[in-house]
Amino acid sequence: MPDGCKLAAKIWLPEGTEEKPVPAVLEYIPYRKRDFKSIRDSKIHRYFAQNGYAAIRVDMRGSGDSDGVLEDEYLPQELNDGAEIIEWIASQPWCTGNVGMIGISWGGFNALQIAAKDTPHLKAIITVSSSDDRYADDVHYMGGCMLTDNLSWASTMFSYNSLPPDPAIVGNKWKEMWLDRLEGSGLWLKKWLQHQRRDEYWKHASVAENYEAISCPVFAVSGWADGYSNTVFRLMENLQVPRKALIGGWGHKYPNFGGEGIGIDFLREATRWWDRWLKKIDNGVDEEPRLRLWMQDSVSPLISSCPGRWIAENNWPSAKIENQEFYLSKGRIHLEEDEIKNEDMRIRSPLSVGLFAGKWYSYSESTDLPHDQSEEDGGSLVFDTPELEEDIEILGSPEVELELESDQPIAMIALRLNDVCREGTSTRVTYGLLNLAHRDGNENPIVLEVGNTYRICIKMNYVAQNFPAGNKIRLSISTSYWPFAWPSPEPAALTIKSKGKLILPVRPKNKEDDKLPDIGEPVLSEPIRSTLLEPAKREWTVQHNLATNEVKQQIINNDAFLRLDDINLEIGKETTEVYSYLNNNYNTVRGEVESTRSLARGDWKIETLTRTVLTSTPTHFQIRAILDAYEGDTRIFSKSWDDLIPRDMM
């Protein structure tokens, strides 16, 4: 880099680039190319090289084998480095000068963000599971409510950032670099909690602030089980460049890792995109429908499959979609407003509503998808249609308009749209959250006046869903959604008036959808060699101790313990998350995440332990955290944090 910092890269080149240069594809993330992501990377980037592209994986400054310290997400230094990397790639003798970026999650974010910079040789991007608005649609906040994945994600990076570079790459300076990271990376959760509204911190690197800054073609991808599908629709509506969208039934993964019956031949689709914009091959990609989407069929919440069919839209918003209004009365959803008597409906939900909500950005595994919503519905106001006489298919963002009062100045409302089958199981289709202090926007929240009536509109996440004849559509409303989102400062009761509206974006079936070309089954390149030492372990349990009235949700997320054979390196990661409360008391809610990571080669062995605990009072969040690092059996670093952060109408 211009300041002398060295960034580590792994490069796959097609044969013959000495005589015939090729375009290049960059993935630029902090997830350690040499160890924890090496198997995944080899399956993807070797494929690109085998299909005529130079593929480059770079460890960001302060991660993996790169110099420096990583202090936060999407800092100006990160984006400037990314632009420098692209210009370096374009100047190499094996590159034609045309460069693309691909990335999922963090890499999808910075692909968008670097595309919004003046980077002449960046000719196209593929952004997967990313956001154009860092406050409205990311792992931190939703509808002005704090997601507990804010804690989970901060803990993931806390653990990643605790690791050293590989001495086999950086030599004897590895320990000095390690100590710099341990001391300097910091506790990111504290930074994020210091910005509880949409201020300049979140506006930075949110490309929604100026879509016109993006001047290269964009292929935006997500999955319905992921948390990032909303972004795809906003990009398709607001970008002014050639663009394309793909949303399937998978979760927070590249679609080629989507799982049996869910994944697709995504690398072929990616290569077609690169062929069009990096090699200038007129292959028709830009003449295909702008959006290709998976219309989900009704399915039991007790299984992780996602049946359905592919549909397409040429543009977004789509002229095919018709908003259909339904009206709410006690327990019912009506097609007509007439003859609904005025009734007040009061709800103050127990903290248990949300225990079966799954993860905000699910990986589409059986452990982290939303479970049967019947128990959640028991602590909610529930509104049902009669059994449907014919199928109803929706595509878009369902909305709910309500008139309500609150008995607290700060309150949250959680809405779930469910598909209820004849057997009684309730499958969550989509949902929305709103901190009612953010009812008029996320930049300048305003507390509620107790006793006043407010008319609010809540948009749910975008979805494509078929509700079959014989099933019911259910709207469930609760005042808590723990531990999916952090609860309000005090328990709040909401009084909701009759004649609220449920607005569904109904899409008629289109025979043209049946003519869409096959999108294929997943194809991956051969991975690097590894030996399984211990299998992965995934568990998700809910416990209610009836003697103490303590409720716990425990998540075990241990990756496989592996040896990477080519470099003789053993890698391990174990993580446990626990979310709890006692006696339905808001002052007892607690989230704790503990992670252990290890690297070992011969006599060289390191291990790090991170633990983060988040609790709250009506006025403050409290963070307690520890970081311990071991070289062999010797603890060479230890640090702890104990911070109080005022709640800002949160």
From TrEMBL:
Pfam families xrefs: Peptidase_S15, PepX_C
UniProt keyword Mitochondrion, yes or no: no
Protein name: Xaa-Pro dipeptidyl-peptidase C-terminal domain-containing protein
Xaa-Pro dipeptidyl-peptidase C-terminal domain ranges (all copies): 271-525
Keywords carried by this UniProt record: Hydrolase
Membrane-spanning intervals of the chain: none
InterPro entries: AB_hydrolase_fold, CocE/Ser_esterase, Galactose-bd-like_sf, Xaa-Pro-like_dom, Xaa-Pro_dipept_C, Xaa-Pro_dipeptidyl-ppase/CocE
Protein source organism: Methanohalophilus euhalobius
GO MF annotation terms: dipeptidyl-peptidase activity
